[in-house]
Amino acid sequence: MTYRGWAEIAIVAVIIGLMIKPLGTYIFHVFEGEHTFLDPILGPVERFIFRFLSIDKDKEYKWTGYILRMIALDFAIIFFAYLIFRLQGHLPLNPAQAPGMRPDLAFNSAVSFGTNTNWQAYAGETQASNLSQMIVITTCMFTSVASGIVMAIAFMRGLSRRANPFLGNFYADFIRAILRILLPLALLFTLVLIPLGVPQTLKGPARVLTLEGEQQEIARGPVATLEAIKHIGNNGGGFFNANSAHPYENPSPVSNIILILLMLLVPASMIYVLGLYLQNRRQGWVIFAAIVLLFIIFAGLTMWFESRASPILEETGVDVTAGNMEGKETRYGVDDSALFGASTTSAATGSVNSSHDSYTPLGGMILIGCMMLNTVLGSSGAGLINILIYIIFTVFLAGLMVGRTPEFTGKKIESREVRLGVIALLIHPLCILGFTTLSLAIPSARNAILNSGPHGITEMAYAFTSATANNGSAFGGLAVSSAYFNVTTGVAMLIGRYAIFIPILAVAGSLAEKQILPESEGTFRTDTPLFAGLLIGIIIIIGALTFFPVLALGPLAEHFALFG
Amino acid sequence: MDDAKRIVKIIMLAVLLLGLVYPFAFSGIARLTPSKADGDMIEVDGRVVGARNIGQEFSSPEYFHGRLSAGGYDAMASGASNLGPSNPELVFRAEERLNQILLENPGIKPEDVPAEMVTASASGLDPEIGLRSAYLQVSRIAESTGILEDALRALIAKYERGRFLWVFGEPRVNVLELNVEIWKMLGEVRQ
Description:
Strand content of chain A: under 5%
Number of strands of chain A: 6
Pfam families (chain B): KdpC
Largest sheet of chain B: 2 strands, antiparallel
Structural class of chain B: mainly alpha
Number of helices of chain B: 7
Structural class of chain A: mainly alpha
Radius of gyration of chain A: 23 Å
Order of helices and strands of chain B: HHEEHEHHHEH
Largest interface: A-B, 120 and 102 residues
Keywords (chain B): ATP-binding, Cell membrane, Ion transport, Membrane, Nucleotide-binding, Potassium, Potassium transport, Transmembrane, Transmembrane helix, Transport
GO molecular function (chain B): ATP binding; P-type potassium transmembrane transporter activity
Distance between the termini of chain A: 21 Å
Radius of gyration of chain B: 22 Å
Number of helices of chain A: 19
Oligomer: heterodimer
Subunit structure (chain B): The system is composed of three essential subunits: KdpA, KdpB and KdpC.
Helix content of chain B: 40-55%
Low-confidence stretches of chain A: none
Largest sheet of chain A: 2 strands, antiparallel
Shape of chain B: extended
Membrane topology (chain B): Single-pass membrane protein
């Protein structure tokens, strides 16, 4: 990789580092009902919405009440999405005449957008109407990330409250996440994207007669509004099949770097919010440093691995100095594609500006690895929750090593928390590896693989990792349009979200009821570089132990076969 | 019951504000830059010949050629080839393309051809090529159109797009922009 690649990573890390304090402080103030600079405009709107929905923001729920309402709302939205996808052929705003989706495809797509995954088994240009793109997909891009963010907020309240089992008012938090955080950012960046060349039109496809006299029909639509929230909310569902590689979604290196920053912004800021809830900003910075260091390493590795083209292509004698250009766009080249790839898999976004399936074996391995770890930032909210699971584990293991009751921020971590944490931690690999193994064993599912050999194993593992991690990106060669994949990836998305949220919020509920113990000499401090190092170690070791076998069969085997 | 009603109302409100008002309002605001908002179409002599940022197929010798497209530049079906790095198809396709380039551009050797010209883009609609990929086509275009090589080189230099902030992206030229200029030059010759 080049010095330019390093400069890009450094610029991104510095900008994010500068942004998390102001944005994190703002997010904290929003959820704690403190004054913010947008109050004069949004205050009255919020009061109106609260009155319309008869929400009493001071009525707080325990963890069960909080998560039940979150799940009820999510499932109601998924049901609504299912109906619209089924019926879109009969509904207005359908200039490209997309037909209604089959039940399995509608289920998969509804779950996908409802769970913040944005896995797309359909092609945006022809199988989703403008109405679906707007009232289902764009709407879900706000609501699904809002429920993720409020989960993290509830968890942090649990960590910071003293012997108080209440975690907040779900509805008030949910409305505030959308109205005061996501919407202002989306409005601002839609205005930035349109002049950069991202279309925003209600017109149907354009028809042109090319210079060589050929007809070309060009899909377009209200892309900019979707593109902005797609990245701010770590959604990732593309307007077009090619997603953010499409020149209309991501027209230039300028838009490319803006989208990269947008998808890292909120997840990184949530780590700063954690420091504010714990009244220990240093704690926030220490965790941020650990996570950003992982991000820098993975982004750098992806760039480095992609800087070499496939050896079998080299044999043709063409000039391969630009690196692995198969499935990459000229305007980004290898560096900006790899940086986007590492960002989208780290931050659980799932938009792609290059074909991940065509990455070099090790480049692709880093991408799938980021999703397997699911903690290198992660999506807004859900990512922080995953980081907190690993923190609890690190504290627990450190406690075992020194022989003390583990504590995190003055709360005793006891067997109940650790047991629930283990459940949350194990569901992720169990779901990924279970479905991958099952699908490799079923001949008809195996037939969906495009690239045979070890690469095919990676393709399959990538699909279920992406679904379970609620990422949504794909090794696009896998033909996932069959009912089998629609149902299995749909179920994996549901497990990856709710089977992790429920035990984790139970941990929050149980921590909330505990007293905060005063710090003593025997307290193992969690806001030190030592802890950051331990956290990184635990994340890598647990990740490596869990997923090494499948990575050995897939990308590593392919690498050694290719490069010798 | 209270919660059920509230959830229905939340969905109604979300669909109305986020799903309809937000995109509709911006589709309205976007009318301030109608050409960008509608996809930046290029019109020549009263005829819409394409979208600036959407690649199209060029195969005749007088025009610059773009990259391989997995979908044959079908702008209703974007996408990549998704060929893995060990897939032999990658090589068959690259060799076929390379032979075609060598045949069309006499004097060019394989090592003069950047890999981007024998690989498919991510979108299948990549509108651009690198500078070297453009320069290697200059002699062929000059020969088949009668336009001076220097004029073509000047054209490439004129339309070059550089890196953003010196680091982001790659230097490149837009194939359609170049070809529109060639079309105009040929038009003057015709008259």
